[in-house]
């Protein structure tokens, strides 16, 4: 009778038994048809947790929290059981002991075949952050610490990307890793660490000779540019302290790191650049000729505007390739706070025309920013068009 039912329905029936796993195991041993249908389920079973049907999966695969066969296979060193448990859906995260302990059993008991199966799994390799596993592998086995893995990344790249500082330090101290190795997209460990704000990792990589400007890179931003773009002030500081840093190198959009920080409204980073004195606050990008003040004005970053205006050398009326000033951009976008801040600067011109013959007030009126237009009209230096 049971053999004529689908395996999904059988599992739902056995769910109501006192010991569903025992009942299924018994049937698997006495009926070949049921064995083929239900045996995979046994490899998913936990030692204590009841099964549940995941109705969101199209195949109604029955998942169990735990992974008891996987645990047993690792303890006893039975690669076939470990392999089947993983194939049929058991994962390291679902085991009650967690990845480090399971790895520990395989390593400490000399289960080479089991270990080889485990280290090929994407959910148990070093980029998961299991420091103890990495130590065990390096201590006990002759492993290749710099091998290309998932997505063409080495363990060092994964540690840099995900912020696993302790693991990264272990890896670099082996002396067998390439600190400037690029993944298929041209990202080096330092690029990943800088872009994700991992200050401690940036510091370690620099100490071990990571290049601030890797040659023949595919990616178009430097570590400093990435850190500035995403507002990682501590990373920016660390990079600016390096002797070989080139603070004004432009990315593929023709922008310097300082410009990227201003564009994205990172006040602290903008302050840091000005503090180090390595940038020209009046330098424009190579595409539109726009300064940091211009970009911040368009994007409404009034805090950044105030920081830049404190520089005595700033040109508040700097024009881009369309002869538009920061005030023109702020007025056109309706940023009243920015307009107000710019009007406090000495010598600001409110009547300057761009190549289209439009003044800031004309821009504000054209876009319907009446309040901005009123503020500009009240300014004493206004020249009505």
What's a concise summary of this model?
Pfam families: Ank, Ank_2. This protein has 385 residues and is mostly helical.
What is the topological layout?
Layout: H1 7-14, H2 20-30, H3 32-42, E1 52-53, E2 62-63, H4 68-76, H5 79-87, H6 99-108, H7 112-119, H8 131-140, H9 155-162, H10 165-173, H11 189-195, H12 199-207, H13 223-229, H14 233-240, H15 257-263, H16 267-276, H17 292-299, H18 302-309, H19 326-333, H20 336-343, H21 360-367, H22 370-378
Antiparallel strand pairs: 1-2
Helix pairs in contact: 2-3, 4-5, 6-8, 9-10, 9-11, 10-12, 11-12, 11-13, 13-14, 13-15, 14-16, 15-17, 16-18, 17-18, 17-19, 18-20, 19-20, 19-21, 20-22, 21-22
Tally of strands: 2
Number of helices: 22
* Alpha carbon gap, first and last residue: 92 Å
Judged by helices, strands and strand pairing, the structural class is: mainly alpha
Tell me the β content.
under 5%
Calculate Rg over CA atoms.
Answer: 31 Å
Specify the biggest β-sheet.
2 strands, antiparallel
Average pLDDT figure: 79
Name the overall outline: elongated
The poorly predicted ranges are 46-66, 94-100
Q: Which percent bin holds the helix content?
A: 40-55%
């Amino acid at each position: 009778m049971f053999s004529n039912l689908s395996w999904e329905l059988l599992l739902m029936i056995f769910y109501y038994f006192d010991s569903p796993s025992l009942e299924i195991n018994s049937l698997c041993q006495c009926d070949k048809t049921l064995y083929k249908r239900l045996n995979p389920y046994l490899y998913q079973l936990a030692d204590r947790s009841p099964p549940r049907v995941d109705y969101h999966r199209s195949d109604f695969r029955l998942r169990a929290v735990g992974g008891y066969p996987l645990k047993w296979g690792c303890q006893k060193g039975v690669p076939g059981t470990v392999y089947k448990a993983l194939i049929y859906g058991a994962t390291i995260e679902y085991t009650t002991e967690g990845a480090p302990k399971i790895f520990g059993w395989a390593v400490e008991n000399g289960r080479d075949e089991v270990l080889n199966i485990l280290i090929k799994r994407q959910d148990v390799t070093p980029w998961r952050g299991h420091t103890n596993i990495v130590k065990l592998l390096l201590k006990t086995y002759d492993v290749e610490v710099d091998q290309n893995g998932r997505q063409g990344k080495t363990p060092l790249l994964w540690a840099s990307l995900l912020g696993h500082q302790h693991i990264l330090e272990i890896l670099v101290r082996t002396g067998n890793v390439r600190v400037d190795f690029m993944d298929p997209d041209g990202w080096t460990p330092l690029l990943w660490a800088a872009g994700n704000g991992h200050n401690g990792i940036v510091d370690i990589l620099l100490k071990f000779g990571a290049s601030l400007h890797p040659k023949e890179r595919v990616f178009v931003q430097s570590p400093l540019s990435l850190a500035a773009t995403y507002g990682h002030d501590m990373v920016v500081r660390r990079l600016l302290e390096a002797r070989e840093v080139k603070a004004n190198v432009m990315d593929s959009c023709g922008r310097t790191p300082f410009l990227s920080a201003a564009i994205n409204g990172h006040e602290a980073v903008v302050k840091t650049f000005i503090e180090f004195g390595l940038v020209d606050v009046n330098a424009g990008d190579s595409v539109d000729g726009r300064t940091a003040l211009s970009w911040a004005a368009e994007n409404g970053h009034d805090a950044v505007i105030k920081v830049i205006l404190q520089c005595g050398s700033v040109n508040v009326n700097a024009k881009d390739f369309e002869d538009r000033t920061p005030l023109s951009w702020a007025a056109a976008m309706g940023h009243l706070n920015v307009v107000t801040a710019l009007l406090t600067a000495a010598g600001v011109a409110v009547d300057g025309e761009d190549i289209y013959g439009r003044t800031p007030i004309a821009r504000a009126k054209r876009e319907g920013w009446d309040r901005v237009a009123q503020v500009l009209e009240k300014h004493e230096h206004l020249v009505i068009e």
